[in-house]
Amino acid sequence: EGRVPPEPRSPPHAAPPRPAELAAMYKNEGNAYFGEKDYGRAVRAYSEGLRQRFGDVELRAVLLSNRAAAHCRLGNYRSALADATQARKLKPDHLKAIVRGALCHMELRNYSEAITWCEEGLRIDSKEKKLLEMRCKADKLKRVEERDARKAKAMAKKEQCQKERLLAAIKERNIKLVVEPSSEEEEISGSLAEICLDGFHSDNATGAKVHLDADGNLNWPVLFLYPEHEQTDFIEAFHENSRFIDHLMVMFAELPPWDLERKYLPRNLELYFEDEERAEMYELNPAHTLLQVLQHQRYFVKAGTPTVLAFVKSSPFSKKYFSGKKVHRL
């Protein structure tokens, strides 16, 4: 009887590439993308290579160093630095990784660290041009940074001294400050004012602030409000010993264009300040100085800008405005 012939054997399948071979393939792919300046794909290719489980330390260091270079080109300096650091741990004499790590520190303005990396690289190759140039540049920039830090510290100290002198002068005159904004306005003590002084300033467009002049006198930004016409005047530096009437004489030497009835003459004006806490109005004596007004027991300087309201005496608007309000008159 006839024998059944055996079935032919199928050809053996090719063995899959080993992890190290795959990693090398991804490295080459990443290098090709890098050469084409497609740095995003280069990063992804190197990352795929690093995901492979292989024990070739040299290859892993190269992949990390190459990914650091791609990250650098993308401006991802912190990621690049992390890769360069890992590459250097795996292979301490990997010069390219050191160069790239030093470059990252330069871009991140970590000049001391950049110098350290450069010096480590120069111990491997004392003639490496990039490291020599980078160390020189990092040293110069570090000196500039240190000089600027010293200047800033000295300036901050000077400003703090000026603030302390200013607060002492205000406290000495028994002037009460209120800082805004706050949920609840409250008089601030000397110590609290010292903490909050950065918020204690005028909100006016010029940014004028209270200051001490060379003679130790306070000069304040002062806001005049004219409620009837919704107009304002602003004096950037009202000397504490100047009288209100003197400023009014200058401000209304010529009648403003909005005063169509020509009634805003200094002798016709009454000045007031408002005690918002009690919802009361206080009339000022125009012959008084700014300091005399600021020292009033119910005057509180808000946001660093003393404010006064001006009305025409006995005008219909004035009578209506003060109707129902408690007014302390001279």
Structure description:
It is a single chain. The chain has 330 residues and is an alpha/beta fold. The protein has two domains: 19-144, Serine Threonine Protein Phosphatase 5, Tetratricopeptide repeat; 190-328, Phosphatidylinositol 3-kinase Catalytic Subunit, Chain A, domain 1 (Ubiquitin-like (UB roll), Roll), CATH 3.10.20.90. The protein is 48% helix and 14% strand. It has eleven helices and nine strands. The protein has helices at 19-35, 39-51, 57-74, 77-90, 95-107, 111-124, 129-172, 190-196, 244-251, 290-294, 316-322, and strands at 176-178, 211-212, 218-226, 231-239, 269-275, 280-284, 300-302, 307-312, 326-328. Strands 2, 3, 4, 5, 6, 8 and 9 form a seven-stranded mixed beta sheet that branches. Helix 1 (19-35) runs antiparallel to helix 2 and helix 5 (95-107) packs parallel to helix 7. It is elongated, with a radius of gyration of 38 Å. Mean pLDDT is 89; it is low at 182-205.
Q: What is the helix/strand order?
A: HHHHHHHEHEEEHEEHEEHE
Quickly count the helices: 11
**Tally of distinct domains:** 2
**CATH-wise, what's the superfamily of the largest domain?**
Phosphatidylinositol 3-kinase Catalytic Subunit, Chain A, domain 1
- Rg measurement, Å: 38 Å
User: How far is the N terminus from the C terminus?
Assistant: 141 Å
Helix content estimate = 40-55%
Q: Would you tell me which CATH topology of the largest domain applies? A: Ubiquitin-like (UB roll)
Query: What is the name of the CATH architecture of the largest domain?
Result: Roll
Oligomer: single chain
Organism: Meleagris gallopavo (Wild turkey)
Pfam families: TPR_16, Wheel
GO cellular component, one term: cytosol
Protein name: Cns1/TTC4 wheel domain-containing protein
